[in-house]
């Protein structure tokens, strides 16, 4: 069984930065594709970023809305995935969720249904 625990989010001013982390408890962390999704008030949950399993080269993919501002990374020793967010905008305000899945093919990495395990979510608010 995999459990994902996210770090606390927070309140950040526009233009600021914040790093989220997600600890993976369970075996074979390196075999999982790890993703971040978010859900803004009144909106559906959307894909933010993903980093593939080591066997798939650990490549990263981003939503267009965050490309160039957010960076996803993973630390095998710590069994943790990170989301470094910079140049934050008010529209980045959302609950952010960490997700893990195995055997996800490339064409499916952006879909919620591809991920079997989810964190509890953490609130990120970008406001002055």
Structural overview:
- By secondary structure, this protein is mainly β.
- The chain is 0% helix and 47% strand.
- It contains no helices and eleven strands.
- The chain has strands at 3-6, 10-12, 18-25, 32-39, 46-51, 60-62, 70-75, 80-85, 94-102, 117-118, 122-126.
- The strands form two sheets. Strands 2, 4, 5, 6, 9, 10 and 11 form a seven-stranded mixed beta sheet that branches.
- A hairpin with a 4-residue loop joins strand 7 (70-75) and strand 8 (80-85).
- The N and C termini lie far apart (40 Å).
Question: What are the main properties of this structure?
Answer:
four-stranded antiparallel beta sheet; 128 residues; mainly beta; 47% strand; 11 strands; seven-stranded mixed beta sheet; 0% helix; globular
The number of helical runs is 0
Name the helix and strand elements from N-terminus to C-terminus, one letter apiece: EEEEEEEEEEE
Q: State the shape.
A: globular
Strand count, sense and barrel status of the largest sheet are: 7 strands, mixed
Relative strand content: over 45%
Number of DSSP strand runs: 11
How far apart are the termini? 40 Å
Mean pLDDT: 96
Considering DSSP H and I runs of 4 or more, what fraction of the residues is helical?
under 10%
List low-confidence stretches. Answer: none
The secondary-structure class comes to: mainly beta
Any idea what the radius of gyration is? Answer: 14 Å
Outline the fold blueprint.
Layout: E1 3-6, E2 10-12, E3 18-25, E4 32-39, E5 46-51, E6 60-62, E7 70-75, E8 80-85, E9 94-102, E10 117-118, E11 122-126
Question: Brief description of this entry?
Answer:
This protein is mainly beta and 128 residues long.
């Amino acid at each position: 069984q995999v459990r994902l625990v996210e770090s606390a989010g927070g309140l950040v001013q526009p233009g600021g930065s914040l790093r989220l982390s997600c600890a993976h408890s369970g075996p074979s962390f390196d075999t999982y594709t790890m993703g971040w999704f978010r859900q803004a008030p009144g909106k559906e949950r959307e894909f933010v970023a993903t980093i593939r399993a080591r066997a798939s080269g650990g490549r990263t993919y981003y939503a267009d809305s965050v490309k160039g501002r957010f960076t996803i990374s993973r630390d095998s020793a710590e069994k943790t995935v990170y989301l470094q967010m910079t140049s934050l905008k008010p529209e980045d305000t959302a609950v952010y969720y960490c997700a893990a899945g195995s055997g996800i093919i490339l064409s499916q990495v952006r879909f919620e249904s591809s991920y079997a395990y989810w964190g509890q979510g953490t609130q990120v608010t970008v406001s002055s």
